[in-house]
Known about the structure:
The protein is mainly α. The chain has two helices and no strands. It has helices spanning 10-19, 21-31.
Amino acid sequence: YCMQYIAEDLDKYNQYKEHFSTALRSKHDKKFEGKFVNFRTLMEFIETR
Length: 49
């Protein structure tokens, strides 16, 4: 499985990271301990025409 989050802009991403990501990560780690690998990547959408 893969999880992906999309933020409207960098400020919204930083708000998520500051206020929610630690608790969510901790909850996930406890529930699936030893059963997953993870990596975090910040990417930007680039519109082409």
